Inverse folding.
C-alpha cells in the first residue's frame, strides 16, 4: 500500500505507445497498425525499486478535444482520473505533428514526461534531438527511447520514480494567447477556480469554456457536482 | 513582387504547393483540421485528386490526409509553386 502509482500513456496513433506498454509490462497486448486500434484502456504493472507502477494505455489520438470517443476517453482519464504521471509518447521522426498533443497535455496537467520514441529510426534519418534544450523549454523531463529495442527504459523508469517521490518537480511551460483571449481568461478564471477548486487546472477549464466545449462542461457537472451533495 | 496568388485548396492541382492563409470553418471541424496540421502558415502539397476531383489527398506536416470538397473548399492559401 502507498507504493502503487498510476502512470498514463498518451500519444498519437502509431508512435509505439502500445509497444512501450508491452515492453514495460510484459503483457501481450495486441498492437495494430491502424488508427484507433487501442479502444479500451489496457492496464499492466511494472515493478521498480520498492514501487509498483500501474500503466494505463490510453487510446492513440492527434488531439484531446475534437470530440471523438477515443479523444474523450483519453482526455477524461488525464483530467478526471488524475494519474500520478502522464507520459506523452512522441514519434521522433514527426515531432511537429506530435507536439500538438504534447502541448495540450502540458496545459491540462502538471506531472508529465515527454518520451521521444523511435529515436533509432530518427537517427538513421539524420535527425538529431537535443532533449536537454527541450526539457528546459518545456519545463518537464524529455527522454529519448527506442521501445522496440528497449533503449532508454532505465532512464524513463528512474524519471517516473523521481517524479512520484517529488525529487523532480514539473513546471510545464505556460502557453500564452493573444491579448484579447488573455483578458477574457483573467475575467473568467477566478470564477472557474471557485467551482473547480484544486480538482482541475482552472486556466485549462477557462480555455475550454472560451472554446465552447460543452462536452467538457457536461463531464464536469457529472463528475464534480455529486461530490458536494 | 507579384501579388500573392490565393486559391482554395479544392482548386489545387496535383503537385501544387500551397501555404495556408485562412480556414473559413468553425467549431469541431475547424478544431479537427487544426489538429491534423491545417494551420495558418503550414505548407500543403496536393498529392493526388480522385477521378471526380473529390476527395483530394494532401501532404501536411509529414502525413497524407484526404479532405472532402466540403472542407477543402473552405481552406484558402497562397499558391507557392506549381510543382513543375
Amino acid at each position: 500500500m502507498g507504493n502503487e502509482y498510476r502512470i498514463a500513456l498518451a500519444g498519437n496513433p502509431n508512435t509505439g505507445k502500445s509497444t512501450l506498454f508491452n515492453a514495460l509490462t510484459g503483457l501481450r497486448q495486441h498492437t495494430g497498425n491502424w488508427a484507433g486500434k487501442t479502444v479500451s484502456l489496457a492496464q499492466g504493472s511494472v515493478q521498480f525499486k520498492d514501487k509498483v507502477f500501474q500503466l494505463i494505455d490510453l487510446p492513440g489520438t492527434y488531439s484531446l478535444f475534437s470530440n471523438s470517443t477515443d479523444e474523450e476517453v483519453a482526455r477524461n482519464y488525464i483530467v478526471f482520473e488524475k494519474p500520478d504521471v502522464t507520459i506523452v509518447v512522441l514519434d521522433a521522426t514527426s515531432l511537429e505533428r506530435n507536439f500538438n498533443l504534447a502541448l495540450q497535455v502540458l496545459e491540462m496537467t502538471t506531472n508529465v514526461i515527454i518520451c521521444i520514441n523511435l529515436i533509432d529510426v530518427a537517427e538513421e534519418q539524420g535527425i538529431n534531438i537535443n532533449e536537454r534544450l527541450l526539457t528546459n523549454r518545456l519545463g518537464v523531463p524529455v527522454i529519448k527511447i527506442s521501445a522496440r529495442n528497449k533503449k532508454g527504459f532505465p532512464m524513463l523508469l528512474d524519471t517516473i520514480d523521481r517524479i512520484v517521490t517529488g525529487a523532480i518537480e514539473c513546471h510545464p511551460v505556460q502557453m500564452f494567447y493573444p491579448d484579447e483571449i488573455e483578458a477574457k481568461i483573467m475575467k473568467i478564471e477566478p470564477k472557474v477556480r471557485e467551482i473547480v477548486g484544486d480538482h482541475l487546472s482552472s486556466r485549462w477549464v477557462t480555455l475550454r469554456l472560451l472554446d465552447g466545449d460543452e462536452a467538457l462542461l457536461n463531464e464536469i457537472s457529472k463528475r464534480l457536482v455529486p461530490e458536494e451533495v | 513582387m507579384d501579388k500573392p496568388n490565393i486559391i482554395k485548396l479544392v482548386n489545387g492541382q496535383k503537385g501544387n504547393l500551397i501555404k495556408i492563409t485562412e480556414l473559413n470553418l468553425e467549431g469541431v471541424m475547424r478544431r479537427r483540421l487544426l489538429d491534423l496540421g491545417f494551420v495558418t502558415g503550414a505548407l500543403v502539397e496536393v498529392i493526388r485528386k480522385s477521378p471526380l476531383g473529390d476527395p483530394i489527398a494532401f501532404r501536411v506536416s509529414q502525413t497524407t490526409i484526404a479532405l472532402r470538397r466540403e472542407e477543402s473548399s473552405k481552406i484558402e492559401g497562397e499558391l507557392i509553386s506549381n510543382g513543375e
